[in-house]
Amino acid sequence: MLVGGFGTRLQPLTLSTPKQMLPIIDRPMIERVLGSLNAHGVTDAVLALGYRPDAFLDAYPDGHCAGVELHYAVESEPLDTAGAVRFAALSGGIDDTFIVVNGDVLTDLDLTELWNFHKGHDAEGTIALTPVDDPSRYGVVPTADDGRVLEFVEKPAPGTAPTNWINAGTYILEASVLDRIADGRRVSIERETFPAMVAERSLYALHSDAYWIDAGTPVTYLDSQLDLIDGVRGSAERAVHETATILQGAVIDHSVVMAGVVVESGAVIRNSVLLPGSRIGADAHVLHSVIGAGAEVGAGSEVLDYTVVGNSRDVPAGVRLEGARVPEGS
Ligand code: GDD
Ligand code: MG
């Protein structure tokens, strides 16, 4: 599992917490991803760690998470996606067919079907594909009728993508893929390894319409949680934690309110996520925004349009923020 990136698009939240340790409603993202893998029989995972590895080690000191036994591979410098796969696979002793997942993807993909498709096609690698409206921020993957990958185009310029089916960030790979990856330097699986496999006709892909979201941006970090309380992925999850305090006259509409949050009277929270221990002052409005753990929004302030307030940061009373980062420039 690739979990070593800097989480730049989710700064400032990721300045203190790595992306995959950010909460999705009631538990860290990584627990949901590992739980989905475990449901398909995965018992062991090597975490490809780089940025803030201690956050993972501290959270799972006995090396178990969501039914999966964890092994840790910590890069001394970022090796990029393929370099990280090679380093983690070798340190985990992998010498047979294995699964790679991007740790920021929440999906109901049928991993067992992907595995069987891979074996059935005698492929060296198989990628899960998902359809998206705007493919330009993903790896775009046109295929032949039998599923063979014709091209792998990472993050094409807007309007130039040959299809809207994109790399869903879940792969089944043969151990031979590891021999393709240079040792000890940065290698991108999307820009280097997959294009080389395409040229040798050994890369396949399976189209899937299952629920899928990459929770790595403010918009998708928010949407991934609203989908869960809306019941888009099964029975609706509880939106407001039992330990949150909502004072009389406050309005909570289509939002996730995590443990220990306090929302004072007259405040309005819509389409937003309030992380644990955050506090919203009287008459403040929080719309389409994310408030970090322990952060405080002052009375009467308006926090709007995908503003992200960092953990333990404060928004003064009476200000208006639109699409802002707090602190600024983070
Ligand atoms: N260990 C380690 N080392 N992990 C890394 C490194 C690294 O140097 N760089 C990135 N990662 C991890 C990230 O933490 C994340 O879990 C995963 O690799 C993918 O990186 P992102 O930064 O989230 O990539 P992306 O979302 O822009 O694009 C990737 O995912 C898309 C699907 O969500 C690509 O694989 C695209 O092709 C794909 O469509
Ligand atoms: Mg991502």
What does this structure look like?
The longest helix has 12 residues. The two termini are 27 Å apart. The radius of gyration is 21 Å and the shape is elongated. It has two domains: 206 residues, Spore Coat Polysaccharide Biosynthesis Protein SpsA, Chain A (Alpha-Beta Complex), CATH 3.90.550.10; 89 residues, UDP N-Acetylglucosamine Acyltransferase, domain 1 (3 Solenoid), CATH 2.160.10. It is of the alpha/beta class and 330 residues long. Helix 4 packs across helix 7. The strands form eight sheets. The protein has a five-stranded parallel β-sheet with strand order 14-17-20-23-26, with no helix packed on it. It binds guanosine-5'-diphosphate-alpha-D-mannose (GDD) and magnesium ion (MG). Guanosine-5'-diphosphate-alpha-D-mannose binds next to strand 3, helix 4 and strand 11.
Number of helices: 8
Number of domains: 2
- The 3D shape can be described as elongated
* CATH architecture designation of the largest domain: Alpha-Beta Complex
* Rg, Cα atoms, Å: 21 Å
Please summarize the sheet with the most strands. 5 strands, parallel
User: Which band does the percent of strand residues land in?
Assistant: 25-35%
Low-confidence stretches: none
In CATH terms, the superfamily of the largest domain is: Spore Coat Polysaccharide Biosynthesis Protein SpsA, Chain A
Helix content: 10-25%
Number of strands: 28
Strand order of the largest sheet: 14-17-20-23-26
What top-tier CATH class of the largest domain fits best?
Alpha Beta
Determine the mean pLDDT: 97
Ligand roster: guanosine-5'-diphosphate-alpha-D-mannose, magnesium ion
The first-to-last residue Cα distance is 27 Å
By oligomeric state, this entry counts as single chain
Family: Belongs to the transferase hexapeptide repeat family.
InterPro entries: GMPPB_C, Mannose-1P_guanyltransferase, NTP_transferase_dom, Nucleotide-diphossugar_trans
Domain Mannose-1-phosphate guanyltransferase C-terminal: 239-326
Domain Nucleotidyl transferase: 2-228
